[in-house]
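S., here's the first fold you wanted:
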Amino acid sequence: MSALSTIQIKEANAHLAALHHRVAELEGTVREQAESLIRKDEQYQASIRNMAGAKDRAVAEFQKRLAQSEEEMQKLMAFIKDKDRELERLRHHSRLLAQMCRSRPLLNALVSLMAEAEGIPCLPNVGQCNGLPGDPDYAQSDEDLEDSDVDRTLFGTTV
């Protein structure tokens, strides 16, 4: 092998120095990028924690609102049941009133007869006759005859 010349050694040393300098620059760049990545990673992790916290708060708020909505729904269901019962009661009253309205002509006739009966001063004694004076169609029953304590009865209406 031949011996290297001083110029070759100087060039080799310069090349090695340039190479070391380039390696140091690259190591610095790698450190800077690693630090930058670490900072970005920390920022992203903080951002993720913030988003997770916001999500957890939103979920908790939605659960709270859901519970309130379910409670309100239960109240409304109870209110509807009360109204249904009230409606059924009113329907029953409506049916009764309709029946009363259908019976009104009969009631009017009864009231008219009672008003006419008010005009008769008194009924005759039970022992004296079997009917009303002037009314041969009226016949007293055995039940009417048993009521002998009542000698005179007056008819009255409050209608």
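And the second, which I think is the more interesting of the pair:
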Amino acid sequence: MKNEKISDEQWQAIIDNNSAYDDVFYYAVKSTGIFCRPSCKSRPPKKENVRIYQEAKEAIEDGFRSCKRCKPSGLYLPDEEWVTQIMEYMDRHYDEQLTLENLADICHGSPYHLQKTFKRVLRISPVEYLQQIRITKAKELLTTTNKPLVEIGSTIGMHNIPYFITLFKKITGNTPNQYRKKETPTNE
């Protein structure tokens, strides 16, 4: 049975990683799409994003995926699905500061395992994937707005503008300003 409201006792069990509550209830996190045991050592979620389930199968039926770290009910997410989940998270949060450590924590795995699995499945690292997303968004902003580079860099999560320009040129072969001039249609 799904419970939108979490009791103080359940919340405390999650915060304390209390294994005494394992198999008593499971908690799912709406923002990540993952469900866990109360004893899971992952970063505590925001309370408003938590749903409570009495059984693991209920969380699965609601579309949540089993945590790779605590493996509720012995279930785990296949590597390809886990990588897809991480990609989807990066697609939505590319403008935030994302490190391998916080991605691994958010997606319930170790940084080493995340790096190794992501690279094996996609043939690129999580950082390379994130850079591709950011540069694609930058290209879109360069051709559809007149925003200055500083604002575009901030919008895509790259606040270090010299690094943004260098990475953009490395990936596209042009500086952002060169790209904007080349790709923006002129009104003649």
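Why I say that: The longest strand covers residues 26-29. The chain is about 50% helix and 5% strand.

Talk tomorrow,
H.
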